[in-house]
Amino acid sequence: MDSDSEGNAEDVSRSRRTRIIQWAGSIATVFVLVVGVAFPPLFGLETDMQLVLTIFLMAIILWVTKPVPFTISSVLVMSLLFGLGITSSFDDAVSGFASELVFFLFLLILLGNTIGKTGLDDRAARQLLSAQSTPRRSVRSLSTNLFALSFFMPSAVARTVTFIPLVKRVTTLYGLGAKSNFEKSSFFILGHVNPIASMALMTGGGMAIITSSVIQSSVQSITWVEWAVYMIPPVGLLYAIAAVSAAKLYPVNDSMTIGDTQSTDGGETQSVDDELEADPMSRDERIVAVVMGATVVAWIVGSFVGIPTILPAVVAVVVLSLPGIQIITPSDIRSMSWGILFVIGAMFSILEVMETTGTLTFIVDTITHLVPFGTMALWQVVAILLTIAIVMRTFFSTASAAITVVLPIVLEFGSVLGINQLYLAFSILTIIGSTTFLPFNTTAVLVSFDQGPLSMRDVFTFGLLTMVFALAVIPLAWLFYWPFVDAIL
Asked: Which residues form a coiled coil (predicted)?
């Protein structure tokens, strides 16, 4: 059987599995709704509590199995909040969309897309190598470029998509095979390690933005600079350990250069540098570079003078949309992935209703009575909460969705048990952002798995490794670094 036939058979098998999962999700959703509505309140719940828990469980099933698009399932669960009489008005049922988070994430997605649209991402990617590069140096350069680019290009998926073609081209230039150690270590960095960088800044992506919003509403105010001070060192350490491990797990050559390979093939060394040399920056590239740089500066300055974080993003999007510039156009807005925004808005609506009906407090009180947290040491309690986050994480296709669901519940436990909620929030973000057992758990991993040489076993093994690294970094930050930051801020 040729490779095309094998690929078609695999696509058909994958499509069949997807349909089975979707139908199973649809049936499970209907079953949960019927049981939740038809049965009298169970386990000491009040009627409203049981109904909102029913909708909460329905939402998770729909978002995990995806029988319908995220936008449709999100509208459904919010409509049920009103239709079943849990909220007094439809406005209350969709209150999650009044959150600044939804609009802020919308703006950052638009800004991130402009980097790819203008070609700035490709320009950054070209810095990966020259004719004098070696495979090992290229892996290091890939790691460094991805981390640096995360400060200006929030989407880990966009960074992955940008660098995949270059990694494949570099593999060819080195004369290495499609499943060489170089390509495997590079795709580990693109899929597993790359998303870790997005946690370093408050504006680094959906995970960080959602976590900062929950911290702002439930714990304390936190500025862009404060977040950077708290998170850049531990995230940088975690990123470095994971990147080094990717290179060590699949060792790569450090003596052969692209120039050597090209000379062997015909002495065309100079053509490599010519091919990789970037053209002069275009007008649009210069505009986006200046606007993004100014936005980052505004976030930093705004942390000291009290400018809301969303305002610089609003100004940046407006500037890039102005007549005569029009780098952001109506087609960019239409082509956005609206699903995750609807998921976040719907989840915040559900969580607000769970809060007002006392459901969240009931859950926490019930579990704290069943589990003897009072007899446990602090590290044991935190370990259990992190374990809960890890288990919940495995059911979600994006870390942002997992954070949205898990973080408020875990912070409620932290409040009841007297745990430092800020440290707990950072810890939950770190462990969720570092845990990927299956390709669908993280979009960047899914893309690298689909287009690279990694197997399911590779994904699970390295995902387990990054989770262990996170579990090692979190205690160091909790016990030593974050208290030091508290002392100096």
From this structure: none
